[in-house]
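Incident log, structure service

09:12 report received: a user says their structure output differs between two submissions of the same chain.
09:20 pulled the input from the user's history:
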Amino acid sequence: MITKIPSKVIVCVALLNLLAFQGPTIAHAAVSAHSCGSNWCSGSDSGTSTNIEGNGPQIYVGEVAEWQVPVTKMAFNQSAAQSAIGRAVASTPSGVGVAYYDFGNGPTQASAPVAGESLVQADYCFGWEQGHQAESNILNDYSTSVAYSYVIFFDMEITPTSGWLDAAVTGGSDGSYAERNRAVFNGFSDYVAGRTSANPSFCSGVSPYIFQYGVYSSPGLWHTFFDTPTSTVPPAYLDPASSNTDFCNEDGGKYGSLPNTFIWTNQGQNSSQTNPGTFDTGNPSTAACWFGSSNYEVGQQFVTSQSNDYDLFYVPQSMPVFGFNWGY
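09:34 re-ran on a clean worker, output below:
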């Protein structure tokens, strides 16, 4: 059974982190040094060490956490991270550095509510705990890249143990599963953004880092996680080239709208082996499909396979958490 991290433990660990790093907005490098040379950054993520052109990535996105999984199992390529940092700090910058992602777990992986705590409150604290775990891992294992990282994405996808709810899991059609999924994300995003806990009686503390939060997912998954079920069940990963386009640009309904969240989309079952160049080329095999009705559609993972993960990111982007731009 997963044991909820007591709030006192979170407070103590966070305070130790603060003592070590002297404050919650530590170590971020000056954004004025960051550029890809254009608005389009060719990058990679997870275990992939180069961008699709075979060069060091202009941005690299590495995994830093998954609930109760040892950090040694994370898909973080130190070589790619250092290459991206090198491009960001060069005399003529050609990159924006590093971003992180946390492979998120949903409500069924959370511990049961304690006395006086509702299911939704417990879900919120589970997200809060995942944010804390991610930042603890960054503190202990990825501190060499944190100076060049402003963004952390919560990876929301379906695996046998990911724990996200949908109508098939709950048997319900009233959207209660969507509320619980959103509560997990809210807890995560509040923690990494340095906000006060919305459930302070059961989870609290101070974030040692401040990050702009984002989500990695796909339109089909977003429909599964957040929309009231219909007679049509979308595929888990929707390919824009598919004849079923009902869920492209999926808003997610009441609980799936993320207006101030960075969105990194998986375009589907991945077809392009070349850089699409922009998010919308008019070619359904390469164009990006979005979700969450966000004002910040920043990244497209356009190729994934067992051996490579390539991405396209757009900068500059305003970061609502910080009030200034990522890149320039």
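09:41 both user submissions now match this output. Likely a transient worker issue. Closing.
09:42 reviewer note: The domain at 7-326 is CATH 3.20.20.80 (TIM Barrel). The longest strand covers residues 296-304.
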